[in-house]
Design goal:
Elements: H1 2-15, H2 21-30, H3 32-36, H4 45-64, H5 73-79, H6 83-86, H7 101-121
């Protein structure tokens, strides 16, 4: 457990980067047709990715301050899914996220953090 907490502490610095707005805009531009076919409520990539990231950051904050027992159950349930599992409407570009370097890096850092957090909270 000590190693996981140390790794999470190290990852926290990687998570404090600017949001990849250019890449989310580029994704929406490159997949214009796919986004156009989504309903209005399902077409919010920037907001949805932000929600995914903030849930992980919030959970990380609880864990690093020793308040794991105070994490809301719904927050832990959300943590159990990757971005593309929770927001299935974006699966059409999942296999191409490496084409968007900032988004890809941000996604990978948050995914690694999410998986480590699950080891702590479950």
């Amino acid at each position: 457990m000590e190693n996981i907490i140390k790794r999470l502490t190290d990852l926290k610095n990687k998570l404090d980067k600017p949001f990849p707005y250019r890449d989310t805009d580029k994704i929406q531009e490159d997949y214009r047709t796919e986004f156009f076919n989504l309903s209005e409520e399902d077409d919010c990539l920037t907001g949805d990715f932000n929600t995914y990231c903030m849930n992980i950051s919030g959970t990380l904050s609880y864990v690093l301050t020793g308040k794991t027992n105070k994490i809301p159950k719904s927050q832990i349930e959300f943590l159990q899914m990757s971005f593309f599992d929770f927001f299935k409407q974006y699966k059409f570009f999942e296999h191409k996220i490496s084409d968007y370097q900032d988004f890809f890096e941000e996604y990978n850092n948050f995914e690694e953090t999410r998986k480590l957090l699950l080891k702590v909270v479950e």
